[in-house]
Amino acid sequence: MIGLGGVSMSALAACLLSAGFTVAGSDLVRNERTAALEEKGVCFVCGHDPARAAEADAVVASSAVPDDDAELRAARERGVPVYGRADLLARIAACFEVSVGVAGCHGKTTATAMCAHVLQACGGCTAHIGGEDLDYGSYFEGGNRIFVTEVCEYRGNIRKLRPTVAVVLNTDADHLECYGSAAALFEAYAAYARAAPAAVVCGDDPIRSAVRPALTFGLSEGCDVRAIRLRSSGGRYSFTLEIRGRPCGRIRLNAFGRHNVTNALAAAAVAEQCGFPPALAAAGLASFRGIRRRFEPLGKLYGAELIADYAHHPREIAAVLAAAKEAFGGRLFVVFQPHTYSRTRLLFDDFVAALQGVERLVIYKTYPAREYFDAAGSALTLAEHLPNALYVETTRELSVYLRCSLRAGDAVLFLGAGDIYFIAKRLPGAKL
């Protein structure tokens, strides 16, 4: 498995180990996920080992691995079958009587984890989650009938999954470097939903009119599964679950933010589609405590609360900022690290709109991931278009700014899908 350290690849490796396969893998660096797999007997190599790939029975590569990777070349030259990450995921999902795939531009990790908790309360499931659930991690075995998985749209991977229940949370534009246009990405979501025996889609999103859903969920009237009588307490929401016009009890969420109401409704709709009673769905949602890097408290720095969130798309940023304003009463500082030059360039105006109202804003240098430098999509260019933003390039610069600015009662929100999370955890003086 090439790219074994990724959250999805490591989860799939755990699944293969459980099924009795012998697993080996590689990645550019070691991390806590590869260390956990090594403890279970996985032979891991940091870097490349083409000889091992050539001797394998099969090779699975992460979507981030380039086609000219040395291990991939060695495998192909020896005639070893090569599969993408999504190919393996599709094969695993097909082994279950019922498979639930959760797709969408935002919220799919949280919604997948919520589905896992709900289905576990309903009798059991096996879950593949694109993040670290605080209880289940990224892979959880709780039953052999139902499989729930996150479905990623990157590089067309969404086309490879054919779940029996296809969930679509939203259809915002992203990964336009792969799809070319928002319309092409929307059609990928629609095709995914149409191909499933049952589509469960957000009734507040345009996807509703593009497919014939088995169920809709959302906040607007006309949705089959709705939240009514919403209440917020410090950023955590409660609501009455309504299914086909019938009130089905009160649900209280542990996750912060109004946007998580929709994620919870998706999980409740999945339970309804699978024939489980609403009371079990409510019990499952009550057991969900959250996802690592989703509004995760990190501790304190100079008396200020530190919070980390994976938000790296303009709409996600707006949702997290709204949640933070509800949760904290003091001054709010925001440190945002853009993720990839292409996303910043293609959604530039949307990023400006999402961030321009932040009074205390720091833009940290771009996390390039798989990309090369592009000035038009750089963090510096973004900062230059935000009058309140301070641009910083090093941990030291960030540390000095925070030391000179923070006081007790403040909150600092670290946003981004790159290494800003680990930078925040290493800040001098932080009490984690």
How would you portray this structure in words?
The chain is of the alpha/beta class and 432 residues long. The chain folds into three domains: 7-83, Rossmann fold, CATH 3.40.50; 96-287, UDP-N-acetylmuramoyl-L-alanine:D-glutamate ligase, CATH 3.40.1190.10; 296-425, Protein-Tyrosine Phosphatase, Chain A (Alpha-Beta Complex). The chain has 16 helices and 20 strands. It has helices at residues 7-18, 32-39, 50-55, 70-77, 85-93, 108-121, 176-179, 182-194, 259-273, 278-287, 314-327, 341-346, 348-355, 379-384, 395-405, 420-425, and strands at residues 24-27, 43-46, 59-61, 82-84, 98-103, 126-133, 137-141, 146-150, 165-168, 198-202, 215-218, 225-233, 236-243, 246-256, 296-301, 304-309, 332-336, 360-364, 389-392, 411-415. The protein has a ten-stranded mixed β-sheet with strand order 7-6-8-5-9-10-11-12-13-14, sandwiched between helices. Strands 15-16-20-17-18-19 form a six-stranded mixed β-sheet, with helices on both faces. Strands 1-2 form a two-stranded parallel sheet. A hairpin with a 2-residue loop joins strand 15 (296-301) and strand 16 (304-309). The radius of gyration is 22 Å and the shape is globular. The two termini are 34 Å apart. The mean pLDDT is 94.
Blueprint of the fold:
Elements: H1 7-18, E1 24-27, H2 32-39, E2 43-46, H3 50-55, E3 59-61, H4 70-77, E4 82-84, H5 85-93, E5 98-103, H6 108-121, E6 126-133, E7 137-141, E8 146-150, E9 165-168, H7 176-179, H8 182-194, E10 198-202, E11 215-218, E12 225-233, E13 236-243, E14 246-256, H9 259-273, H10 278-287, E15 296-301, E16 304-309, H11 314-327, E17 332-336, H12 341-346, H13 348-355, E18 360-364, H14 379-384, E19 389-392, H15 395-405, E20 411-415, H16 420-425
Parallel strand pairs: 1-2, 3-4, 5-8, 5-9, 6-8, 9-10, 10-11, 11-12, 16-20, 17-18, 17-20, 18-19
Antiparallel strand pairs: 6-7, 12-13, 13-14, 15-16
Helix pairs in contact: 6-9, 6-10, 9-10, 11-13
